[in-house]
Amino acid sequence: MSQPCAHSTCTAEEKHLSSAVFWTREENNSRTEEMVPRAAPGCKEKKRIFETGSGRYSIYIANYAYGNVGPDALIEMDPEASDLSQGILALRDVAAEAGVSKYTGGRGVSVGPILSSSASDIFCDNENGPNFLFHNRGDGTFVDAAASAGVDDPHQHGRGVALADFNRDGKVDIVYGNWNGPHRLYLQMSAHGKVRFRDIASPKFSMPSPVRTVLTADFDNDQELEIFFNNIAYRSSSANRLFR
């Protein structure tokens, strides 16, 4: 397994990774997303752009921390320091006040109304530490519900994540890979009035692999979602996998 990067230095494996930014716009209760590929030399990080409930768009950055360097960040426009009429746009990190300033091995981020009915929640799968499921309180702050919802997976090393309603029950489900560990397919359930997720991954689906990216889409246009695992050749060959 590759060693974590130390803020500005990474293994050769990490330097060839690419990342993507998801621009999310919400208008009239509808959501549109545009994926913009970007090069990612240096340290691994994942970004998602969305609204936190503060009335401003935010950028969530999942960093790969090294000790007490490199916590996750939540970037918003600073209205007091900005003057758009003069072309001045200032940004500030509000992660601490939002409750999402965490030191971990950030590997994947996905944003959507997972627990909330319409607000954007944040799911992060991490390496060398539990996953995060930040529930949006609607006031610009979040609370981590991963452990209580059963998706913290503290002994695995997450890679790639996607959100979808896989069983068409109107609830957002979570799929992600674990580096050479069991991959997860979590369906959202309810137990005693509380949200819980149940892993329904089959033995073939959960079979460990050196996974990097997880995508879900209706690839064959049959009105059913498929799940794609992008694996890398790490120490030996490892084919990609597509599940129907």
TrEMBL record:
<protein>
    <submittedName>
        <fullName>Cartilage acidic protein 1</fullName>
    </submittedName>
</protein>
<dbReference type="InterPro" id="IPR028994">
    <property type="entry name" value="Integrin_alpha_N"/>
</dbReference>
<keyword id="KW-0732">Signal</keyword>
<dbReference type="InterPro" id="IPR027039">
    <property type="entry name" value="Crtac1"/>
</dbReference>
<dbReference type="Pfam" id="PF13517">
    <property type="entry name" value="FG-GAP_3"/>
</dbReference>
<dbReference type="InterPro" id="IPR013517">
    <property type="entry name" value="FG-GAP"/>
</dbReference>
